[in-house]
Amino acid sequence: MERIALKLLGMINSQSQSGAYTLILGEVEGNRRLPILINGFEAQAILFHIEQIKIPRPLTHDLFKNFADTFGIAFKEVIISKFAQGIFYSTLICDDGKGPREIDSRTSDAIALAVRFACPIYTHEEVMNAASVSVEDEPDLDDLATGGMGADDDAYDYEKFTIDELEEMMNEAIENEEYEKASQIRDAINKRKSTH
How far apart are CA 6 and CA 183, in angstroms? Predict the structure, then answer.
C-alpha cells in the first residue's frame, strides 16, 4: 500500500473539547491536512520538545527515548495506519538490531516520539480520504505560531507582565512541574514577540 509522507505543521486549541488540542499534520507533497485531536499532556510533550523548553526531569516520552537509545533500539518511522469511528491508530516501526518490529501506539504518543527521534511520519490514502480536510476547509492556521492562543485564553491575563517577567514565571512553572501553565506562558511570550 502506497504511503503518504506527512509533516507536523503545528497545533491549535481544540474548539470542541476543553484542555485538548488539534494537532495539524500536512502532506509533504500535497495540500491536504490531517487534524488529530490530542490531550493536553501529549500536546505539551510535543510543544516542549519543538520549542526546546528544558525541564528538570524527563517526561514519559523523553524516558522512552532514553531507554531506546540506551538499549540500541532505533526508531525508524511512524505510520498512522487506520481511522475508524473517529479514532486514529498508529504503528511505531523500530529496529532492535535483529530486524524491524511493529509496535501498536496511540497516535498522540507516536507523534510525540517521532519529534524526539526525528523520524518520518506516514499514512495511507484510505486514512486521508476518511479524515483529511482540504486547505480551504482547515482550521485557522494563523494561530499555529502562538499555539492557538486567542484573546479568550489564559494568555490574555499575562498582558500586564513584561517579557522578562513572563520568562521568569515560565521557568518557575517548569521547576514546579506545572507544564500546562508553562505552556500557556510560553504562548503568551510568543504572541507578544510576534506583535512587536
Answer: 25
